Amino acid sequence: MAIWPSDKKEQVISDSKLESTQQQAIASLVKKLPEENLSMAWRSSLNERIRAEAEKKRKQRRTRIVWSSSLGFGMAGAILLMVMVPNAMRPTSEAIPTSNKSEVLESSLYALHQESVVLGGVSSTGVAYRRTQEFDNSDLGEDEWNSSQIY
Hints:
The chain has helices spanning 8-18, 21-32, 40-89, 101-123, 127-134, 147-150. By secondary structure, the chain is mainly alpha-helical. Among the domains are: 42-90; 101-138.
């Protein structure tokens, strides 16, 4: 249906519809309504409410993003722990023989001590090694020594 009548017949029909008693009653009701001009204060308060709602939505979105990413990292860490820790703590049959555990413990402690001594000598400046080379205990008995030989 066209907004503006294109020929005389359509124009007569639309004029008769506008002049009907129902249309006249509605027109009189609309004329009786008080004319309200929108005030600038009302517009300003509306803009402030819209801005406050937008800010609230923005904060909710930020909070949701932070919590969801934190929850994701937490879940990934929990899954990693569930997968890695049981495998790392499970004793293998090759690592600890069941026959004599005290001998195995003693030998592993001794091996660990030897390794730490070697690593200490390698990673240090070498002063302790040179001083031990300078010290010759062939002159002294086992219980005889003086402080100049140590420092």
